[in-house]
Design a protein that fits this description.
Structural class: alpha+beta
CATH class of the largest domain: Alpha Beta
Number of helices: 12
Strand order of the largest sheet: 1-3-2-4-5
Order of helices and strands: HHHHEEHHEHHHHHEEH
CATH architecture of the largest domain: 3-Layer(aba) Sandwich
Length: 277
């Protein structure tokens, strides 16, 4: 019951957001479009997960990430209401709708500059387009870790960055992971950020670097001095995301095909099917 209430809470806030946009004379901003598109995608994914869960699993499901997002959305809606001012403007006739996903389409996604976790010649590759500040990216990261532990030789994992404009710390967090990678700790930093991405900042990245046993001075130097390189890599990831129809975060691909799997059992079912072939 709680899951359904929270899911409908997302729907209600999205509806309020649309109302604010309709009343705005300027129409939907790119940020607003991204925000609504991402949350519509999230509701769809949560619905699929809920339908595949048993009653006991539903009761055990961690709701913290959903609550954080509801609070974040409410704050943004309040700010949008304040900016919208009076009533007026044209009704939006062509607001972007969520396209139907094609889970049979296979995309070419090169690892390129991105680190690969696991054997490079593994028969199964999971690619994730991530926003390090996105609460749902944090929420759905543990199942990936479980997959990698369960299939150490059969599965590898690649992270591509897709920082959304309304998450100002997403890009700095991606750069922090790259900087940690200069000392061989990319994945440790990525895991640490996604374990709790509720309060990201440069000071937090510095503390995480220290906790991971990095040379903190070198970490901070790489973080700043190689900024142009990190920007280039992130821009390349985002361009690739556009080519492979990323519409929100997180978006996952199994051997080049989008997947709606978000829990371990769903991943296991798809991976086992691939391995049997």
């Amino acid at each position: 019951m709680q899951n359904k209430i929270l899911t409908w809470g997302l729907v209600i806030i999205i509806g309020v957001s649309l109302g604010v946009v309709i009343l705005s004379k300027k129409g939907p901003s790119p940020q607003m479009q991204e925000l609504i598109q991402q949350q519509v995608e999230t509701v769809h994914i949560l619905k699929n997960i809920e339908e595949g869960m048993s009653g006991e699993e539903k009761r055990k499901r961690d709701l913290s990430a959903i609550l954080v997002t509801l609070q974040d959305l409410q704050q943004r809606v309040t700010a949008l209401e304040a900016k919208a001012g009076g009533v007026g403007g044209d009704v939006i006739r062509n607001f972007p709708q969520r396209p139907q996903e094609d889970y049979t389409k296979e995309y070419t996604i090169s690892a390129a500059h991105s680190p690969v976790r696991g054997p490079k010649d593994a028969p199964v590759t999971i690619v994730e387009f991530v926003d390090f500040q996105c609460p749902f990216c944090a929420r759905f990261h543990p199942p990936i870790q479980e997959v990698l532990e369960t299939y150490p030789k059969e599965v590898n994992y690649v992270l591509k960055n897709f920082p959304l404009s309304f998450h100002p710390q997403a890009k700095p967090a991606a750069k922090a992971a790259f900087a940690a990678g200069e000392q061989g700790k990319y994945w440790e930093m990525a895991d640490a950020i996604l374990k709790d991405n509720s309060n990201l900042s440069e000071d937090r990245f510095k503390q995480l670097a220290q906790d991971l046993g990095l040379n903190v001075d070198k970490f901070l130097k790489d973080y700043k001095d190689k900024d142009a390189q990190w920007e280039e890599w992130i821009a390349a990831d985002m361009a690739l995301g556009g080519e492979v129809d990323v519409r929100g975060t997180p978006t996952f691909y199994l051997n080049g095909k989008k997947t709606g799997a978000r829990d371990f059992s769903s991943y296991k079912k798809e991976i086992d099917a691939i391995l049997k072939k």
